[in-house]
Amino acid sequence: MNNLFLLLAVGVAVVSIVALVRMSTLRKKDQKALREIKKAKSALNKKIFYHGDSDIPNYRQFMQKLLKVERKFTRYHISLIKLGKQPVFDDIDEQLASFSELFNTISKSCEPFALALYDSEYMLMAFVTQGTGANTQEAIEKQKNILHKLPEQVLISGTKVPIDYAISSLSLTGYSAIYGMDKVQRRLTYSMDHALESEDGTFFHNEQLYKAEMYKKHVLRKLTSSISFNPDDFYLVFQPMYIPSDLDKPKRYEALIRWKNHKNLGPKTFIPMLKSQPGLQEGMTEIVLNQVFSLLKVQLDSKKDLTPIHVNITKQELNTEHLFGHLKQLLKGAPSIASFIVFEVEQNDTLTESELIKSNMRKIINLGCRFSIDNFGNDRKSYQLLSNGYYKTIKVDKSYIGEVRDRHATSKSLEQIMSTAKRSKLTVIVEGVENRYQLDYIKSFENAMLQGYYISAPLSAHDYLSVESKQSVTLS
Hints:
Layout: H1 2-26, H2 30-45, H3 59-67, E1 74-83, H4 96-110, E2 114-118, E3 122-130, H5 136-149, E4 153-156, E5 159-162, E6 165-173, H6 181-197, E7 202-204, H7 207-229, E8 234-241, E9 252-259, H8 267-274, H9 278-301, E10 309-313, H10 315-318, H11 322-330, E11 341-346, H12 355-367, E12 370-376, H13 380-385, E13 391-396, H14 398-401, H15 412-423, E14 427-431, H16 436-442, E15 448-451, E16 459-460, H17 461-470
Parallel strand pairs: 6-7, 9-10, 10-11, 11-12, 12-13, 13-14, 14-15
Antiparallel strand pairs: 1-3, 1-6, 2-3, 4-5, 8-9, 8-16
Helix pairs in contact: 1-2, 1-3, 1-6, 7-9, 9-11
């Protein structure tokens, strides 16, 4: 029986090394991966951690042996342990004695079913329990118990050195969908990132969260490809804005991006993903600006009056000169178009208005463009933005008009915003108008414009040009 456990432990150690090396190294440098495998064989043959020589079993052979251990009634608890949140060991070969002592200490104190060393940073630990009904809380307690038993110091070159740990864990059965060392390794590596960010250095795998983040990465790869190489994958629709007294003639439009993709993902899915990727956000804005400019240029060349178009941007994009540079280059052929481009800046963006942001806003204003505050709220932070004089229009958060659900309903917050905007000679755009009561309510405000599906759904580029060919208006 001891020989069986020994063989399985050797298998776990070696397969873990091979799998992790393959994941992190083999794709980049095959030769480096081969050297790591040779080092693993050498360590085993030197009997550093185990007694007895053994060839490295491949993944399938190891898993087949593991399956024989009462698969139906067995649960595996696997943990990836980082040896020091900050690196403690520099090299395996030079620290073999220290690793051997640490390995043996952990093996005795935690009594794992299998324990493996990977590189100079990680150990992989596995426990096997009978019965498949263990709950997550029990597994988390096991994780904390492991951390408690790990030594707080290691002996390196005769000197005791403090060491801390981070640990990511998961539990599975032989019938689990993620059963397989390659799947397990990917999840443990993902969970380790969360463990390193947590206060206590632990993280128990959450499959739902993992799939959500992997899906996000998949979408971001597709988005990156479309933005970088296939900008025609994106197209614009235009939602009209009106003054309440004239619902036949749009006064402005908001350009809304759409993405042609196999999963038919809408902007509510992919736009938030861009905010964590400033480079992609800039690329997307370039695509929007290019298409807006092209449509306005077509009308300008046809001797038609132009209607302003709003383009959504983040403050992060104003924190560099990239937007200004692209806009300046774009407008060279038709500088007059600038006065018909209005940038809607997200008010709820956490980035403060630095001197660099203000400088770039002034440069863009000098080109002829204008700025509007998006998602304006009835709060101090929003009102403070009005003092800089850069914004001529505010678009209020649609939650305020949403308070108006019948003919007697009002919105005190919206009324206060309207009053302040009137004193500052600002135009207020109320978006999200969805019923007749809201429309009638907005008509009571002199400085209001409205936008919403009750009046008009977004128009395709073709319909937008068709409307504009019949009538043209100038910026109010």
